[in-house]
Specification:
The chain has 156 residues and is an alpha+beta fold. It has helices spanning 50-58, 97-100, 141-152; strands at residues 2-12, 17-18, 25-31, 41-47, 65-74, 83-93, 103-108, 111-116, 122-126, 131-135.
Length: 156
């Protein structure tokens, strides 16, 4: 594997998701090396920095222009995707308000869900920010919460 330091500016593509471990997050960044949209590259990014993960999951919105730096890891197998591990993040510009009007946060007791007009899938988190799962549709939110409470003893 080849690892190189990298710093890029790009737009947050979608709502970031919690990572596999507490204090981590996954997100996609659209980087435009030229002014032509055909040259846009989508980077799959992760961070293990709890401060960055918290900001991504609670403050930063899709469409925000970010400056990120970290390490790009190119796998030995060219068929595998490169991994960009972010260890510094700065918001250069926030998304226009119109991009956020199509998303709605709602509370289900100790749970928070994000409704997006562009998709039926609904991300579900506890009020403390713990990832619960992705409900396939709004009708499946209750079932997902019930399963989470059975597995975790009802404590959100």
């Amino acid at each position: 594997m080849d690892t190189k330091p990298l710093a890029v500016d790009g737009y947050l593509d979608a709502v970031p998701a919690p990572g596999d471990r507490p204090g981590t997050a996954r997100f996609q960044l659209i980087v435009s090396p030229t002014d032509d949209a055909v040259d846009d590259v989508t980077w799959n990014c992760t961070t293990g920095d709890p401060r960055i993960a918290s900001a991504l999951l609670t403050e930063i919105q899709p469409g925000d222009l970010l400056h990120v730096s970290g390490f790009l890891t190119q796998p030995d197998n060219q068929a595998e995707a490169a991994r960009f591990t972010v260890d510094a993040l700065e918001v250069l510009a926030t998304a226009p308000a119109r991009a956020l009007q199509e998303m709605v946060l709602d509370r289900y007791g100790d749970y928070v869900v994000v409704f997006d007009a562009d998709t039926d899938a609904v991300p579900v988190f506890t009020a403390l920010g713990q990832w619960v799962g992705m409900a396939a549709s709004p009708d499946a939110i209750g079932t997902l919460i019930e399963i989470h409470e059975r597995v975790n003893g009802g404590d959100a």
